[in-house]
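Journal club side-thread
Mid-discussion, someone asked how the predicted structure for our own chain would compare to the paper's figures. Pasting it here so we can look after the session.
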Amino acid sequence: MKDVLTKEPNEVLTEMPLGIKQLFTSITHLKKGEKVLVITDDNKRDIGEFVYKYAKELFDTTMIIMSTREGHGAEPTEAVRAALNNCDVAFGATTYSMYHSKARLDASKNNRLRWIGLQDYALHMFERGGLTADFDDVTQVVNRVAPFYKGKTFTLTAPGGTHMVCSVEGREPVLDHGTAIVPGAASFPPNAEVALGPVEGTANGVLVFDGSIPHPLLNLIDEPISCTVKDGFITEIKGGREADILRKMLADFNDPTVYNIAELGLGLNKENFLCGHMAPDEGSFGNIHIGIGKNLNFGGNVNSPLHLDMVIKTVTCVIDDRTIMKDGVLLV
């Protein structure tokens, strides 16, 4: 393959914001001659063009702009689907996450694609926060927690009033180190987490979301949202204005699967902070995000049109008789 560099790599890297440099180095290990795809949409074009501006100086880079999708996990255009199967690294600089889309899942099976989701990004994230972390250290933390993040019964509590119990028997932890270094890997830095998919129909209790719901209509939560969970599904949503927004948003799908308790994702990047954006919020240390809707990526069988993550702060997680985290402090 021809040399696609227009400047010396070190010269370009020196000029880059730290977050961009991290994307190309410790997060993806991009190499000269690899093909890069930047996917963006009408709402996040500034993010896509920002990544493209630097990527094109170093790599054989293509950018595709599509119309904004209707929600997280929604399918992209056919042009994007095809391009995903002909690149080495793809950056999804979109409004909504493509991580749970069939197009992304299928492309990641081709033993070539390394997927980096940059959904719901803001430009300040390239300068400070989770993208500045030492991802070798983050990887060590995730790998240390992973063996303990499985068992039979998961009990979740938090000071805001959360108390939910579910079965995770037979489910294996899904790891996100915030990196995608090997073919087939997928991540959305600066998120870093271990996640489990509850067994369908087993979750019962109350979830009180007091952190954030990374969605254009919600983001940082002003008034906690209380959700009653029965036999694996949210059955009631209480609270103020934001609870009303969530209730209507889910009802508009007219699909019962959107209420499914799909994921228990424990944030493990200490440089992240709650800011109303998906990756740093979900990967914020000491907090957990509860995913609802589609759970195919977590060993489940619910193929929903939605996967939405909602953050609870300062959690205590107990699996069987072992306390993994207590009041936001990691104990393993």
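Post-session note: The two ends are 47 Å apart (CA to CA).
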